[in-house]
Each structure stands twice: as structure tokens, then as C-alpha cells.
Amino acid sequence: RMIESVHGEVHHCTEDSWVDRLAEVLGSRCARNLLIPKEHEIGVKLRSSTLEREDLPHLLIYDEAIESWKSVLFNDVDASITSTRGGIAETGSLIMWPNTDEPRLMSLVPPIHVAVLFASELYTTFHEAMQAQNWKAGMPTNALLVSGPSKTADIEQTLAYGVHGPKELIVLIIE
Prior knowledge:
The structure is a single chain. The chain is α/β, with parallel strands linked by helices. The protein has six helices and twelve strands. A six-stranded parallel sheet has the order 1-12-7-4-2-3. It has a four-stranded mixed sheet with strand order 8-5-6-9. Strands 10-11 form a two-stranded antiparallel sheet.
């Protein structure tokens, strides 16, 4: 509910149906391509799924240094998909810990960002998430809390969505 209140879109799925839902959602938006991680199970599952189906957009694998394809990322990528480390129900925020397989640009640049959240990793509060995941044992150099598509209020103090970064945030909750 909280992420939908800030213009995010939520779809409830199962382990067996999330690829189908992803294909429907991206098909309805006429996405030509989807940026995926190379190593993460999300990317592996999508690559194996394209062998059996034609309703997914062309897959782009994040497997090169950003300098070699920055122009493509900023100008030609329609959508990206990333994992999450969890979600915070109280604020409708997604917890993301970017790494070399899923750098933060994957969630900050393409017009459509799809995030996969396992329902078992949904926490009531930020504090609960930190405690349950033992953040004090070590954190990455970059952690993100994503709460909806990009937004700004610097233009005449009017809140506008999708100005800098993703115009849409789609969350697939796997139950």
C-alpha cells in the first residue's frame, strides 16, 4: 500500500509465475529491452526462460564496465530488473545493496525499474530489517532505500514524478 501511494506498482506473484507477470507488464509498456544481471538468479532465470518463450523483451546483460556502454544505458535501455535485500512495510521502501553484478545504475537510469522482492524479506520497520539481517556485521559501500519512482519538488514546489531517473517502479512480490 505504501509504495503504491507514491506511484509505485505492485504485483503479487509466485516463484513459478513472476516471469509471466514480468512479460505481461513489460509487454503492456512496449519495452523493447530489459537490462538484467549476469550472475544473479534473476538474470539466470530470465536467460533460460527466453529459450522457451518469445514474449519477453530482448535481454541486455550487464557484463561490461560502464564506460564501454554508457551511451546505450542512458539512451537505449527501456527497463531493468534488480533484486532487493528486503522491503520496509512502514515506508514502502525497498532495500537494495548494489554490487558489480547489479550496480546502482541499473535501478537509477532506465525509465522502468522492476524490483523483485521476496515476501519473506518484508519487514515492518527499518530497524527490524537492520536487526534481522545483522547489518552491524558489515554493510556495502553503497546501500539504497528506494521508495517509488524518481520524484522532485524543485519546480515551483510542485511534486513531479519520473523527472530524474525511473519514471516507473514496478515491484514483483514473490510469495
